[in-house]
Each structure stands twice: as C-alpha cells, then as structure tokens.
C-alpha cells in the first residue's frame, strides 16, 4: 500500500495528504462521465430508432431553449441550498428520473424520447459543472492548479469506461436496462460525496456563470471591446454549428446501417470508447509537444483540418466507417488538443475580463450555435432536402470558414499576448508554460533582458511555474543583475524549484545576505506544504530583523494562510515599516479574521497603537459582518478609537455601497454624540462669557472649540452611514468651508433627513451659523443638556474634565495656575451648597 | 549648549508650539503629541546652537531668550519667545544655511526630524495639516 502511495506521488505529484481526496474526486468524475456516456448512447439509440434522425434538428432547438430555462431556475435554486445539498439533490433526482425513464420506455411513448434526449444533455452539463465547483472547494487554489489536470484524466477514463460498458452490456441487458446501471453509478457518487469534505469550513453557495455578476449587456459590451474575444466567439460559434452537422450525419448513417436498437447502442458505446482512448493518448503524448513546437495557431487548426478531410470523405463515400472516422476525429481532438488550444487563447485576456465573460461566452455560444446549427439543418434537410453526401460538402464549406477564422485568431493571439505582457495583465498562475509555443516563449524570455526592472520581475513571476531549464541561459545574467530585487527574485524562483543553481557560490556568498533570506521567504510561498519545517522557517523569517525579509515573510504568511502568524501580523500593524504588508496579509485570511480583529480592538489591555490600526483593516475587508461588528463598538472604546471606527465605517460605505449599517445603532450613536456636543456647548458658552486672562484659559477655550467641531464632524460621519455619504459630505463641506452655501446646504439636509434626525442636527447647524452666543442659543443648550446649570468656573471645568483626557489635562493645568483663587471660589461654593 | 533644564508641562509646551508657522493648522491635541517629542535645551549666551553647513536634523522653538541667525557673518533674523528656527530641517536633510547663536541665555524646545517622522507615522491625522501649512508657506515664498 505504502509503495503504491509512493508510486502515485512520484508519477502524478500527488502529496500524501491529498491522495484520498484525489482518488475520491477522480472516482467521482469517472462515474458521472461514465454515466453520462452510457445515457447518451441509450438516448441516441432510442431516439433514432423510435423517432427517427430527421427529428434531430428539433431536439437541438429544444436543448438550446431548455438550457436557457434551466440555468435561470437553477441559478435561483442554488442560492438557497449549500453545495453538498445541491449536488445530493441533483443526484437523487437523476436516480429517480433514470428509474422512471426505464419504466416508461418499457411502453413506447414518443414524447418521452424527446424528454430523455433533452434530459441527458442537461444532466451532462449540470453534473460536470457541479463536479468542478465541488473540486474548487475540496482543493485549495494551490492544490487545484497542480491537481486538476490529473483529476481531469478521470473524466477521459470515465468516457472510455462508459463506452466499453455500453458496448458490452447493451446486448446482454438491453438498451433500456442500461439506464438502471447508470442509476447504480449515480448512487455510488452519493456514497463518494459523503466521504468528500471541503477544505473550507463554510461551503459557499455556488453560482452558475450567468447567475451573478454583471448583467448580460455589460458582458456583451466587454466582449465587443476585445477583438480577440469577438474572434473567439465567432470561432467557437462555427465549431458548435459544425458539431450539429457531425452529430446529425453520424446518427443518420448509423441508423441507416444498423437496424437493431441494441446493436446501435453497442456501436455508439464502442465509438465513445475509442474516442476516449484516442483522446487520452493524444493528450498524453502529442498535445503539449504540438502546442510547444508549432504554437496555438496550429493547435486549433488540427480539429477543423481533420474534420474537413472526414467531411469530404463522407461526401465522396457516405458510409458507416467514414461517419465513424468523422465522429472519432471530432471527439478525440475536441477533448484533447483543441480544448487545450482554446484555453490558451484566453491567456492574453485580462483576468477580470476573462473571469467575467468566460462562462457567458461558453453558455451563449453553446445555445446560439446549437440553435443556428439546428436551423441550418432544417433548411438543408427539410426545405432543400439535400442528401447526406451533399450535406457533407456543405459542412466542409463551413469548416473552411472555421479554418480561416482559426488562422486569424492564431495571429491575433500573438499580438494580444505581446500587448498583455506590456500591460502585465497575464497572471503567473494562469500561464502553463509547458503548453506555450516557442514563439511565445521567445517573447517572454526577451523580457528578461529588458532595461525596465519591473518587466524583468514580471517575466520572472511568469517563468516561476516553468522549470529553470527553459530559461537557464539567462540565470548568469540575472544573478548578477544590478537590481537587488531581480537578484532576489531569481534566487527565489530557483530555490522554489530546488534547482542546483542555488548551491552555486554566487548564491551562498551572495554580497547581499538579505537577498538570500528574502528569496527563502518568497520560495516558501511558491512551494508551501504546511509542514512543520516550513512553518518554523516562516516564523523565523517573520521575526527577522531586516524589514525587507519580514515584509516578504508577511506576504507569504498571508498568501499561504499561515494561521500561527495571525497574532504577529496584528501586532505588526503598529510597526510603520511592516504595517501595510501586515494589513494585506491579514486581509488574505478572509472573513475568519474579522472576529479575531474585533476581539483585539475591544481588548482594553491591547497596545493602543495596534488597536488604532484595526478599524481600517476591518474596513478593507469590505465585509458586512465587519461593518456590523464595527458599529457595535462605537462608544465602547475611547474618544480616538471611536473616531477611527467611524472613519472605517465611512470608508466601507463609500467603497461598498451595498453595505448596510444598522440604523438603530447609528441613531443611538448620534444621540450620544449630540449629548456630548451639547454638554461641551454649555461649558463653552459659560467660559467665553467669563474669560480669564490666562494663556491656559485661552488654550482651554480653543481646545473645547476643537472638540465641538470634532463632535459635529462625527455626527455627520454617522449620518453618512445611513444616507448617501457623498450628499452628507457635500453638506458638511459647504457648512464648514463655504459660508455662502451654508443656507442651501442646511435646506438640502432639511429635505433629506427623517424628522427625528432633522430635529437633532439642523438646529445645531443653524445655531453654529448664527455665530453669536445669544440668549436663545444658551437656552437651547441649557434645554438640550438636560438642564445642566453652569454657574461657576468649577462647574465648567467639571464638564470639560469629564469630556476626555486632553481637556482634563488643560483644565487641571488651569486650576494649578489659578491656585488659591480657584480653591477659595470652590470653598465658598461648597459652603453655600 | 547645556543639558536639559527643568521640565515644562504638556500645556506649556503646547502654548509655545501653537505660534509655530508649520503647526498653525494643528489642533491643540496634536500640538501635545508634538510637545511629547520636543526636548528642552538651554544654551548660554554666545553659544552656537548650530553652524552653517551643519547637518540639519532638528528644528527649535524659543521658550525664553533670543537667538540670532546669521549668514556669512551678517545677521538675517533675530528670534524670541514663541518663534521657531531651523524649521526646514524637518522636511529636508540639506546642510544648514545659517548659523544660530544664543544672544542671551535661551531656553529652547528641540524637535528632531527622526522623532517627527515617527510621530507622523503613529498619528497620521497630523500629516495633512502639516502639509497644508508647508504648502501655504512655499506658495507664499514663490509668490514673493
């Protein structure tokens, strides 16, 4: 067993802790693809024998319509159920449906053959998309990049297995009974599903590509703005149209040649088997070699070129073997080199655009291409009544258009790639260099000689996924580079690959010792395994005396999610050299960091410099939970921390308008601020009316005025949390800095605020604007301060002292300066009292 | 220059600093932060506080006494209580362009640029108001 594990590890680069998940997920994919292959063969056989291939264009149209409808319903349904629940429900529905189909097909019932045809297409699309969605939760992004191609082999093997099973069992059990076999396979997937556990604590609710994000028109706009994307859409569309012709002709000829239903099912199964075998071998042996040697342009020409030959052959000599070759070429190239080539075409597209439009293009092209193909087939077979032979030549014509488009897309790709390198929009993670062709690689290596340090660093990042053998000629140049950052990154990438070059003298005796440690910190990020050794090393680097080393270690801790470092990262918020990096690293921990930060913020024994930086960090999460936690902290902290919290909440409201701050809590905070403002206002009114010629007294009045100003600003900040921040900021700005606009600003505020807030805020601004400390103002303040009566300096200083430590400091100093005079007055008051 | 003299309170320091041009937009509380990094120094009459071409590493505020600033032996300025000198030292590391000499026994507040930058980093709300005053001063100089 151990030796088998070791073999898997060495052959497929699957680590011991991943082995169980890889095997389970591969088995899961194998089963669903096998089930799909079997149901597809059953469906095709039943449809062409019971209904007839002439009706196929109509079911293509039905599938296009049904996919649109289902994606709409599905996207709403997935918002309500967790991923596991959703998959389990889908599987249970599929099992019940398969049994029902089996029961229905024992009696010939024509409409049900249409239903099965559409159902199988939907089943294939939904189960595959659910699988890959589940996979992104079972493996972290780092594992996913390494393992998905290995797991994908399970899918190809599933096709081979499903095809072989169909071929063998169709005669033995009968076509319809194969549906029960599929139901059995689906039951096995439920058992596997129980054993697969996501790596995340909380399973997010999944979304289909179209269910969220930008509206359809915006996506169209994004596609239209990119020449490369428009050409790809055209290319993919024509491929789907041709696919409809292939499917139709293949099934018509198969039906004409094979009369028996079970024989037909077995034939479809055997073709699926050979397609799988051919695709598997082509993918393993030729895809990378062809793409690397001849480039994407040639890679995407192979499928249409093969189809052109097959269509011409079918036109000249229509028969089962030519139809089978057509199907083989289509299946084998589509699942191997063509898919890899098409994925590469997305590489120069900026990641945000790619993520937004890829799902949309796939579904849009599939539906419209399928519908267009169906309409063309109806035109040629229904209206013009052309023969299969002539239809093949029509299809060959379409394939020529496809080849011309592929040629243009291939050329456009290189231009887009060069531009993307200049703009640095290609992500290192997205670049699978083993598939990159020589011309692209030359362009990339050219960047290493660039005079622009940033370009060289970018090229190194892109090359970090590629074995150093591919850029070894440049190592000498890079290790002696004038830029320390380039030297460090070069060593980091080499260290990441455990390349022997790092044992060279230049590395060991590197003049800049920091460089080596920086390199190590970066290398840890590139090949993190969460082992004890890695964790200890990272902890040491976090505590490194060199800020440059600590910064790289902090970045690594965030990227790999090193939980042990969280405490250190929070403390680093107080260090101005590390603050920015620590904040970014903390944000990488996602939602889980919010409660930890809130605890440290609320902890009175915590270092004030650390507490002060926490609100901004929470604000940058852009998370509703962070906003909820922050508003609950207002007036539970201290004067300055409260202000930091208010600023953080304002930042969140501006940057993420969808964030809602609890209205009741904001209302309560405004009341509290207003109360503090009024108390100080009463004291200020008394102090200005009873001035004492002491510098500390003038300073006290100035300090109180500053506090009144700050309290007012806080009230506006709070109002900005429940109204448009932009509007509220404009009012505040106009009131404070543009006296001429004050009346209009107050009028505007009067119109937008609700009655309660209006009463609390508008009089405050009106009184501020009047400037005079008149009797009505004093009366208003007296009323608002709850009838607090100030009749002496002692009363005024008491109010001021209770406001905050800084005012208390000045008040105490003033009392000291006034000395006996103040004590006498206090004594007299006490006697009177 | 002699060692540090008897302490000024936080309020006293603020009262001294509040008239310094580059601190004109700071709040009294911010001045208290700045006061916390301001060290007190006494200089005897005739002592040179800094000389032309010395390294600029601190600014000074006069608490009491007078200081003469001269360039190439010619008096440029004479500063008294509440006034500051060597302010640009906070913003650049260029050599001093004048020599500062105590005309009488002086009591000074000295703010080192390194401490000042640490303070700006810890209290980032101070930075914009300092900038505002500096920009105003530079505009005035350009206008002149």
Detailed description of the structure:
- The complex is a heterodimer of chains A (833) and B (144).
- Chain A is an all-alpha fold.
- Chain A is 78% helix and 0% strand.
- Chain A has helices spanning 2-12, 16-50, 56-78, 83-104, 110-138, 141-173, 178-195, 216-225, 227-257, 261-294, 296-299, 302-316, 320-345, 351-383, 388-423, 438-447, 453-463, 475-479, 484-496, 505-508, 513-526, 532-542, 547-560, 566-572, 579-587, 593-602, 608-620, 624-633, 639-655, 663-689, 695-722, 725-737, 742-752, 755-770, 775-784, 793-803, 805-818, 820-832.
- In chain A, helix 9 (227-257) packs parallel to helix 14, helix 23 runs parallel beside helix 25 and helix 28 (624-633) runs antiparallel to helix 29.
- In chain B, helix 1 (10-17) packs across helix 2 (28-37).
- Chain B contains 4 helices and 8 strands; from the N terminus they run ααββββββββαα.
- Chain B starts with 9 loop residues before the first helix and ends with a helix.
- Chain B has helices at 10-17, 28-37, 113-122, 126-143; strands at residues 38-43, 48-50, 58-64, 67-71, 74-79, 84-85, 99-102, 106-112.
- Chain B is of the alpha+beta class and 144 residues long.
- Chains A and B meet through helix 31 and helix 37 of A and helix 1, helix 2 and helix 3 of B.
First-last Cα distance of chain B? 35 Å
In DSSP terms (H or I, runs of 4 or more residues), the helix count of chain B works out at 4
User: What is the helix/strand order of chain B?
Assistant: HHEEEEEEEEHH
Structural class of chain B: alpha+beta
Shape of chain B: globular
Hey, roughly how much beta strand do the residues of chain A contain?
Answer: under 5%
**Total strands of chain B:** 8
Quaternary state of this entry equals heterodimer
